[in-house]
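Dear U.,

Please find below the material for section 3 of the report. The protein was modelled together with flavin-adenine dinucleotide; I have listed the sequence and SMILES used, followed by the predicted complex structure.
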Amino acid sequence: MNKRSLSPSARSVSAVVSPSKKPRNSNQHDAHFVHNKIATADNAARVDADPPLGKLLASLQNPTLQAQGSAVVYWMRMEDMRLSDNRALSQASAQAKLDGLPLIVLFVFSPQDYVAHDRSARRIDFTLRNLRLLKYSLAKLDIPLHTVVHSPRRDIPPYVISFLQSVRATLLFANIEYEVDELRRDIRVCELAKKQGITPTYVHDKLIIEPGVIKSQQGRPYAVYSPFQRQWLTVLNADRDKYLAGLPPPEANPSSIRDHPTYRTLFDSPIPDHIDGFECADRDQMTVTWPAGSDAAREMLRKFLYTKSRSTHVGLSDPLEGGAEPSDKRSRALVYKEQRDKADRDTTSRLSPYLSAGVISARECVRATLDLLGVKNVKADRDSGVGMWVQEIAWRDFYTHVLVAFPRVSMGRPFQEKYADVKWETNQAHLDAWKEGRTGVPIVDAAMRQANTMGWMHNRARMIAAMYLTKDLMLDWRLGEKHFMEQFIDGDLASNNGGWQWSASTGTDPQPYFRIFNPYSQSEKTDPTGDYIRAFVPELRKVFGKDVHCPPPKLADKLGYPRPLVDHKEARVRALRRYKTPGSE
Ligand SMILES: Cc1cc2nc3c(=O)[nH]c(=O)nc-3n(C[C@H](O)[C@H](O)[C@H](O)COP(=O)(O)OP(=O)(O)OC[C@H]3O[C@@H](n4cnc5c(N)ncnc54)[C@H](O)[C@@H]3O)c2cc1C
């Protein structure tokens, strides 16, 4: 994401809304690091007119032939934390074998980027936990994983080049990160590499179909999901082997690398216990609820595809723990269409942290649906459970395509500029109550407390909580976007921004502003048993029936549960007025 230093006139989101607290992720590397959040409309338009992915791909054209080095480097990033089915790693390994060279893996921690991206301590800790497993698996293949904490972030390109020089490597492989800052960083790496006789190779890996392929008849990127998804499916099934091919893990290095005077020390590089400023306060709970590693991710995928949902797994729990009955007809995947909007059971896969960190590939998820159905063609229809689930994977592709084609969305701008002037409230007390789950609307409070305890939220709950912040409390969607990133273990800029702009009715393919969720009727649909609310809102643990969705004032007072911050009907009228004429009171 590129939210920093977009222009001298770029403003911080806190300035538009209310004085915000000191950033919780400030740390010793970044005590003076300030990142601006909202680009001017002109600057955003300039970046949209010439998106940086095109520049990166152009700078990879016509590489000059380089003298062979002594090693090949794969630069692992936060989104590709697995060994198998990893395109850049696989290509790096194949090249190393071809050239008879050792393979070295590099990982650069960049605290300033974590601040700029509002990364949560949970997401950073998940990265560290995965890296520990990866380091172990790589070491068994005699492949060193070299890690470094690097600040300031603007110096990462020269650092990476100097690392390659220090290990006498002339080939660099990496998977593309699609956020603006990261693309600009990689363009700079390419510029420096050219001067130093190094050939970089950047490949598409994150998505099923890479950005740029799915276009409208006019050759433009889609800003609406349904036609995007239809074409996505056609393109995918027309070239299934290309888009879904699995790739082997890297081959082992010769064991002699461990005696090599330069390379042997790379094996000693430690995985830090934590990154300063990102200490994960509930690491133990996170470790149980979101176990690290590709094996855990695969087991979660298997359980989703082949076993039933459980009411015991609403909140913090071990997803790998037994108890789920194998079911060939009622597995979560097969009844996903009917059940996915229910938050009172583990109806969805809960794979988002693993997909966001690349612990499992989206390709593997889609391949697994083919095995489940025993078919060759990918199904992504609205009539079947599995088809609906594949549509969610397509949403993930869609939002990253949007980010690449319209980088403005990651620069704090609404996709629809006409809503840039919508008048937001300035109310720190309301914002705090929303964050802490004290709005007096049980489904919203359950959702927010689920985020606070699990670092994750059910999709429908995210929509309800986001819609409530923006339409009922009339608070700026960028505050919610930032808060989710700071809380979630699955924080992904494209999906989070897409989800927020959809809910705030400012984005591509948004919920129209006049369709405003009624949180009480949403609650009855999303949590028909009330188990979700009772799991996260202990004040209401003994309340059943309709009251749990909307406790009568006297009951709420007796239970010590807050009264609603705003009246939904009145808030709705205010939102309609302000959206209809942006700028009006
Ligand atoms: C306001 C808001 C913020 C969000 N922030 C994030 C985020 O930071 N990271 C994130 O991964 N998802 C985000 N989402 C999308 C979605 O809520 C989560 O992906 C989903 O809840 C994860 O649960 P799951 O893995 O059980 O999903 P499943 O229902 O099992 O879906 C499978 C996978 O499809 C993808 N997916 C599902 N729904 C969406 C969607 N609406 N948009 C994009 N991809 C989707 C995810 O990778 C998910 O793991 C957000 C949605 C909203 C409304």
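For the text of the report, you could mention the following: The longest strand covers residues 103-109.

Regards,
Y.
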